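Why do we care about 3D structure at all? Because function follows from shape, and shape follows, mostly, from sequence. That is the central idea of this module. The next example makes it concrete: a single protein chain, its amino acid sequence, and then its structure expressed as tokens.
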Amino acid sequence: MKILHTSDWHLGHTLYNYDRSREQQAFLKQLTRIVAEEMPDAMVVSGDIYHYSTPSASTQKMYTDGMLEIHRACPEMTIVVTAGNHDSSSKLEIDSSLWNHFGVKVVGNIERNQEEVNLEKHIVEVRNDRGILKGYIIAIPHVYPQNFPILDTETPREERQARFFQALQDEVEKMNAERLPVVLMAHLSIEGSDQTGHDDTVGGIEYVPISAMGGGYDYLALGHIHCPQNIKGSRHCARYCGTPLPVSFDEAYPHSVSIVEREKAPQIKTIEIENPMPLITLPKEAVDFEEAIKLLEEYPDDKPAYIRLNVLIKDYLAPDCNERASNAVKGKNCKFCYIKPNREKHTSDDETKHISIQEMQEMSPLEIAKLYFQEAEGKEMDEELCELMNSVVQKVKEKSILH
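And the structure:
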């Protein structure tokens, strides 16, 4: 079985109030071309289709048009879409009955029929154009660990998630007499995964060990973490395909989709997605503002990009620095986004660190708490207090998303 693994499209995402629909449409066109060339048996989209739970009408139309073109490129291909933490599970499923006619299976939530959990909803058969069974996809959307259903009274609350994953794989094992490939989809954070460029304070998803995914899958198609990677210890059987387009400047790595073919072990290749409007940090190493603004002024007029300036600050930034940077790109195809401030390190322990509003916006709540504790107590926050603070932040994030 050959699958195309993609996730975290974040359609509708804007960057510093700049509309990114042109880039997102360019990605969907590239994806259509890749499908036409690769002709996979299935395409799995492991969550975060949209960036906002209430996408605009134009964003929803972009998604619908894009999915129809992808279907037309390979009509016999099975498409499975699951909800991520950015998606509204109910809104994603509204048109699920209609999508079934185009070979698209949408799984937004876990369905309960009275007291029974509908496990069949999460199991998708993959067949070729002659109706021959090629394999199975187990589609599990984003669900907070505490919200997984109780399948039996003997399972402790903290083990519900692992029990649900294993129960589905056990169901497939009963059906899979020919030992065909099994793909498991999930949208969560695996312990030990590379978080480069990803804001782990967003989404409130707790980390889970790879062992909690259970046994019975040949390939684990993960979503949520934006850096593409194989999970250590999984024998290349578990992978984050990453975002097709960068969501932030810190995602400074190639963006792609993954093609997975099952032989004795999954064979994985990546196909890079070209971004017509790349995110560039200028320069890579921080320099003083005057040097940075000169580089911005010299940036080619016809070269499209979003740009942030990497500036070394000795005392403070001049009030007109953002205005000067905006003026420097007038008439160019690039767009100035913001200044990343980097303060010089001082050797004096007595000197108080002053933080600008812009710097504070760049920091996580935990980083701000650490700085406050350092100034108030004269020592670094210990590990136990850091963990307590981080758990509070996670719980607040979870509540804000749920409401």
